[in-house]
Structures are given as C-alpha cells and as structure tokens.
Amino acid sequence: MPNPGSPESMQAAQQQMPGMSGKTMIGMMLAMMIMLLVTSFRDPIGEALDVVFKYIAFKDSPVLTLILAGIIMITLSTVVRSFMTD
C-alpha cells in the first residue's frame, strides 16, 4: 500500500475523481458577466466593499490599496475553500 501522500496515491485519487464539465465553467463565466453588466448587482457589491475599504484605503497610493485588497481576497478565498473541502 503506497504512502497516502505519495505521488502514486495522489494520481490514483485524481483518476477516481470526476472531471469538471465545460458547462460549469461557462455557467461561472456567464454569472460573472451578469454581475459585471447589470448595475443593480454592481451597486450593492460596491457599497459592501466600500464598508471595508474606506478604512484601509491609502488615498495617495493606489498600488498599496490594490495590493492590500488582493491579500484580503486571497485570504478570504483560502479560508472559505478550506471549510468547503473535505
């Protein structure tokens, strides 16, 4: 029996998993486009983000604001993903 962390074990686990269908990616892309194009979605999302970013925004350095926003988004997505995976 191979070690659970070995490459052979990982390859066997990947072969047993079903692949993601192309329809899933198209659906995600359409959902994102709808969120960007429909103003009734954009405004509430912007207002919710403003609650957070008005406290951490650097008024004279937009690069620092973008870097900090990226760090926050990566951290949030990592935390959510860790709770959602088995």
Describe, in plain words, how this protein is organized in 3D:
The protein is flat. It has one domain. The two termini are 22 Å apart. The relative contact order is 0.05. The protein contains four helices and no strands. The mean pLDDT is 80. The protein has 86 residues and is an all-alpha fold.
Task: Give the gist of this structure.
With 86 residues, the protein is mainly alpha-helical. 78% of the residues lie in helices and 0% in strands.
Question: Which structural class should the secondary elements be placed in?
Answer: mainly alpha
How big is the Rg? Answer: 19 Å
What profile does the largest beta sheet have?
A: none
Number of strands: 0
Average pLDDT level:
80
